[in-house]
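Note to self: user wants both folds in one dump. Writing first protein now.
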Amino acid sequence: MERLQKVLANANIASRRKSEEMILEGRVSVNGEIIKTLGYKVSKNDNIVVDGQSINQAQKVYYLMNKPTGCLSTAKDDKGRKTVIDFLDQEDKDKRVYPVGRLDFDSAGLILLTNDGDLTYRLTHPKYEVEKEYLVRVKGIVIRKEVVQLRKGLKIDQVLLKPKYVHLLELDKVNQSSLLAIVLTEGRNREIRRLFEALNHEVKNLTRVRYDFLTIDGVERGSYRELKIHEIKQLYGHAQIKS
């Protein structure tokens, strides 16, 4: 048995919060009875109807993609720009998956796609502290003082941006660039780029190489693979509130 709003979210009807609003508005019925109580539990055999349309409790699927630059991490775009969904085979597009979180248009690397609303919530909410690791190539030589600043965090637009981990990997004095590894557990909008802009270092390349324990090893840019059962269980196991 699962909560009705969770089932609606997992079926891609709406976000969990929006699903709760729909329930309170009397737009959802179960087995012919309108339900206005949050937390009402349903089974897989129950007939759930939203706005007069019966829903299917979709089978959950999980994909790991190595996102290329130049595409949006969204299910669709009103302006017709390429999205991560465009890289899926048609049969996988039909499963109505969506990206977990976001990866900037001009960033590359690991992004997860699923139709599992519960896991998406766990992986993207800051309270679960799920790690995302990035390799960042920036213009200029990053000095030790700047690495210390990044580790302590920088206040930008009245918000403290503080990575969980920062490590300087390489200084390329010939091409005047630096390579760093950065780990985030929250990931605000364009956080890494904003951090380096504050230090007057332009980001040349940004690639997410790890999401929790998952990596892009063996997955070519623009390709994807289905997660294994033990990987899905491990994600759920790691996405717990840290005490």
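First done. Writing the second protein, which came from a different request thread.
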Amino acid sequence: MYTKPFSKILKTDVTEAGGKGASLGEMFRLRLGYAGQVDYVNPVPSGFVVLASAFDRFLKETSLDIEITARLKEVNINDVNSLEKASVIIRDAIHDREMPEDLGEEILQGFDELTHKNTENTKTQKTSNENNLFVAVRSSATAEDSSVASWAGELETYLNITRENVCEKVKQCWSSLFTPRAIFYRHEKKLIDHYVSVAVVVQKMVQSEISGIAFTVHPVTEDFDQMIIEAGYGLGEAIVSGLITPDSYVVSKSEMKIIDVNVGEQSRKLTLSPDHFTTLPLSNQTNVWVELGEEGEKQKLSKKQIIELAEICKNIEKHYGFPCDIEWAFEHGVFYITQSRPITTLKNNK
């Protein structure tokens, strides 16, 4: 088997599920983040992981493992053209090779089970059946969030993916291990002689009305009692990619009290195209920018919601025992956790 549901993945399964997949599996199994929300909703949307062994098999059967190793050793990281050339050659080679038939079938079976069951949420949430046809596909490197390197932000994520293109997006996640930025990062962290594989997370899509990031320790002042929550309208990739200016809320963890609120002026939001069920065929689903007007000048989360989310993030940090960088989404009155990883930039690891 080359796929595994979140329910069977532990936080220690980084070598097969990658950092992102192992973290999501751990949180899903233990319902981490639950802080008094509606009891039938798991804070982590259901999903499965295309294991790193699938990528390893793909490379071996296509003989790309040998070609990639040779290309990476030829790269001059001080030459942008050299990085880009190697990236294009490697990524094109991965895209051009056919995925093994049985592997593709296993991924599609996992997709069908995920989108058509959704037993925890479809009967209780105000989510249409159509929305359950979409998933998020995220890269999850096996070296991710380790003591040696954090691949956060180096690899790719695809939102609102359908059955028709899920296998192709899995391949694109595989190939994102070889973007110019990722190749440079590999050299910079002296991982060029280390084998780094990649798993792929396939997770039920949350059509977030509001989304964002939370740092359970202040990333600038490194105050361990202060949590920072960033929030913006629409899909979270807009914040992660730095494409919008979000709200920023500072919360005292010991008192569960809001210390500071800074409202960002958001002019637009990223969302699933409003035409997605009418004029577009499923294979052409897309995310679009929508102008917000005066709405974007308002505070995104209420005080009550800020504290509720802070409690969820505090529970996650308590379980892991280290400061966490958490991605979250809010849909139909429920907070969801779509990622949690260690904060790797702190100098003072208390």
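Dump finished. Worth passing along: Confidence is low (pLDDT under 50) at residues 119-131, 277-285.
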